[in-house]
Amino acid sequence: MKFAIQINEGPFTHQAADTAYQFTKAALENGHEIFRVFFYHDGVNNGTMYGVPPIDDRNVSAIWSELAEKYDLDLVVCVAAAQRRGIMDEDESKRHGKGAANIAPKFRISGLGQLIEAGIEADRLLVFGD
Amino acid sequence: MKFAIQINEGPFTHQAADTAYQFTKAALENGHEIFRVFFYHDGVNNGTMYGVPPIDDRNVSAIWSELAEKYDLDLVVCVAAAQRRGIMDEDESKRHGKGAANIAPKFRISGLGQLIEAGIEADRLLVFGD
Amino acid sequence: MSETKKFVYMNRKAPYGTVYALESLEVVLIGAAFEQEVQLVFVDDGVYQLTKNQSTDGIGMKNFSKTYSALGDYDVNQIYIDEQSLKDRGLTMDDLQELTYEDEDDDWAEKSSMKLVNREQLAELIGNADVLLNF
Amino acid sequence: MSETKKFVYMNRKAPYGTVYALESLEVVLIGAAFEQEVQLVFVDDGVYQLTKNQSTDGIGMKNFSKTYSALGDYDVNQIYIDEQSLKDRGLTMDDLQELTYEDEDDDWAEKSSMKLVNREQLAELIGNADVLLNF
Amino acid sequence: MSTLHTVNKSPFERSSLDTCLSVVSNDSTVLLIEDGVAGALQNTTASSSITDAMGNGVKFAVLGEDLGARGLSADRVMDGISVVDYAGFVQLAADHDNVQSWL
Amino acid sequence: MSTLHTVNKSPFERSSLDTCLSVVSNDSTVLLIEDGVAGALQNTTASSSITDAMGNGVKFAVLGEDLGARGLSADRVMDGISVVDYAGFVQLAADHDNVQSWL
User: Which has the closest alpha carbon to A42: C62, B80, B48?
Assistant: First the structure.
């Protein structure tokens, strides 16, 4: 079965991103397909590569990057939500004259249409949030 | 009277940072003193300079920077919370080998002791959050 | 895209206290271009999103309440309001702005997009959805 | 620093679902070095922070429940649990870990740091605080 | 000592107003802000518990700027709840001995 | 069509379980996750409304990993609520026609 995942909250403060990660991992390990993971609202903050959590805790951004690497996941960060909150790729960072990109590996920035498309193409869309 | 302010949520998603801003501004305009504004939990995300909100909306980080400039406010971002969430000054950024600092003007990174000190030194501590 | 799906947007949070209402509306507007069936449900504190006379000057935030009245132009005209949620909050339909659309099958007559529903009807709306969007 | 103040930490949220419990505890530990009077209140879902046998392997998050048992060593030994909150949630004090301290005025005898309170006592704790920390 | 209690969440979504009212004393004030202002309106499911607390001498206030943002006019507010602005919020914080935020 | 309803908030703090139970139909399942697992325990103020819904044919499940994290053992869970793991969560999402997240 083909799942799409929407994540509305950032790392650490709410469990949403963790639960979505565990769901996604379990779905993949059980032979399902993940059409796309879409990060919206504060969820875009999962896409920062600047986080340095304590070494005895999980690094939410990093485990998403690793899972994406392993299963070739499509991790999409909403551009409008990301701009409000300061998540940038190379292009956005140059366009707005900011210091550098801070987007984590395997994440990409794109529009809200990617969420609607995920709803259309996937068999089930699941939303994780506060 | 001497107030201290604690902010637990980031910009845009929750009104907490906006309410704290309006309270702080009103306190200053009415002759009170603000000992310190302490950003904790997701509140550290108010300290990013990478945010580019729509031009017809307020820029939460920028209005804090401006208020701090005008009244010489002490805006402190908790270092532990900031590390988890990817807010860095020059020093932190170099120490962790990240691309660049993303902390906004007039914000500084320091420890949780600054919050306790604010509680001790101020006449009233107000907490704004979710 | 192979088929038309029914997208149901569940709006359950008050505006301004959190950003979910605003960013949900942004999804609805983008989603309207995809020619899917779209239904908006306002339940629990979501009913406050549609109140008349919102004025945000005092809180320094952008007032986006006018945007709802443009939904009809985007062919978003199935808008359901939970009756119980209004009642619990001391509100009636008179407290909400009127959302309308022009019916192209009826000589572009202006019609209301809003329908008051009870919990049984709400259950049906959820049950018949292909995609449920929650914020 | 001119005076000793009474810091009351109001813990009202469950652990793991949000980070507030963990980051609150980090404040308590840092704050202990400032030699102020410290009281911890666990009310509403905050009572779940102290449950025994927490095991976070399944959710992939750091288990910080052991840290509470170190509070006594930091001279944090005034810990108040709201009785009504436990009852509403089907819990009793037996479900919570035992937090103790060694009383230096009583030949270092080990004593319980925990006290069950009703809402009247909770009102007093709030009323007598100099600084109320909420997360 | 008297306490200023702030409640920023809708009483129809969260239990924080309930807990607040269970511990508030008669020398204290409850200020409704942000989404909490919804509780100040007449004829809601929260009205009776606020009326009861008023009967016990608890004072109530609501932030006018937050009412206005949500399209709720001041004449819909329950009798006995005073409407204040941000400067009034500051004054309330100064006039009480401490502040409890029911987050 | 049948719906999987997820509730991730404590019924003692938020009204989301209440609203969920007011619209859930008898071919559907309510899955308690994250802080929502607290509602699955025996003898709480939420128990009777869950029992009522069960009587109407609604199925209930709770995520075991979230129970364990909060120190709540599976033998404390109400009769009739099945404990599932993340793979079981995935299976429930696949077995129902759509998913409603009561955020």
Answer: B48
**pLDDT tens string for chain B (130 positions)?**
999 999 999 999 999 999 999 999 999 999 999 999 999 999 999 999 888 899 999 999 999 999 999 999 999 999 999 999 988 888 888 888 877 788 999 999 999 999 999 999 999 999 999 9
- pLDDT at residue C2, as a whole number: 53
Helix (H, G, I), strand (E, B) or coil at B121: helix
Residue F59 has a pLDDT of 98
3-state secondary structure F4-23: EEEECCCCCCECHHHHHHHH
Min Cα–Cα distance to chain C from E43, Å: 5
Residue B27 distance to chain E (closest CA, Å): 6
Q: Please give the residue range of the domain that contains residue A66.
A: 2-128
Euclidean distance between CA atoms F3 and C65, whole angstroms: 31
Closest Cβ opposite residue A58 in set D18, D19, D60: D60
The rounded distance, in Å, linking the Cα atoms of E33 and E13 is 15
Total domains in chain A come to 1
- Which residue has 């969920």 as its token pair? F20
Q: Does D23 touch chain E (CB under 8 A)?
A: no
Q: Least CA distance to D25: which residue of chain B?
A: B112
Asked if C27's CB is within 8 angstroms of A119's CB, the reply is: no
Chain B environment of E98 (Cβ under 8 Å): 124
Task: Determine whether the interchain pair A126/F93 forms a contact, defined as Cβ–Cβ distance below 8 Å.
Answer: yes
Nearest-by-CA chain B residue for C135:
B13
Residues C16-40 have a mean pLDDT of 96
Chain A residues within 8 Å of chain C (Cβ atoms) = 6, 8, 40-41, 80-81, 111-113, 115-117, 119-121, 125, 127, 129
Chain-chain contact of F14 with E13 (C-beta, under 8 angstroms):
yes
Residues 6+ apart with CB under 8 A from D74: D28, D29, D32
Identify all chain A residues contacting C132, using CB atoms and an 8 Å cutoff: 125, 127
pLDDT, mean of residues F38-67: 98
Q: Across chain E, what does the average pLDDT equal? A: 97
What share of chain D has pLDDT > 90, as a percent? 97
Give, for F95, the enclosing helix (H) or strand (E).
helix F86-95
| Contacting residues of A for B11, CB less than 8 Å apart | 84-85
Fold of D8-134: Hypothetical Protein Ychn; Chain: A, (3.40.1260)
Residues of B serving a catalytic function are 78
Q: What is the 3-state secondary structure (H, E, C) of A10-34?
A: CCCCECHHHHHHHHHHHHHHCCCEE
CATH of the domain at B102: 3.40.1260.10
A-chain residues within 8 Å CB-CB of C36? 116, 119-120
Chain E, nearest residue to B27 by Cα: E90
How high is the ipTM of this complex? 0.96
Alpha helices in D43-130 (DSSP H): 83-88, 119-127
**Run of H or E including E87:** helix E86-95
C27/A125 Cβ within 8 A: no
The closest CB to that of C62, out of B15, B57, B63, belongs to: B57
- Considering the entire predicted model, what is its pTM? 0.97
Q: What is the CATH number of the domain that holds E57?
A: 3.40.1260.10
Interface touch B18/C18, C-beta < 8 Å: no
| Per-residue pLDDT tens listing for chain A (130 residues) | 999 999 999 999 999 999 999 999 999 999 999 999 999 999 999 999 888 899 999 999 999 999 999 999 999 999 999 999 988 888 888 888 877 788 999 999 999 999 999 999 999 999 999 9
In chain E, how many domains are there? 1
**Catalytic residues of A, which ones?**
78
| Token digits of residue D104 | 């230096």
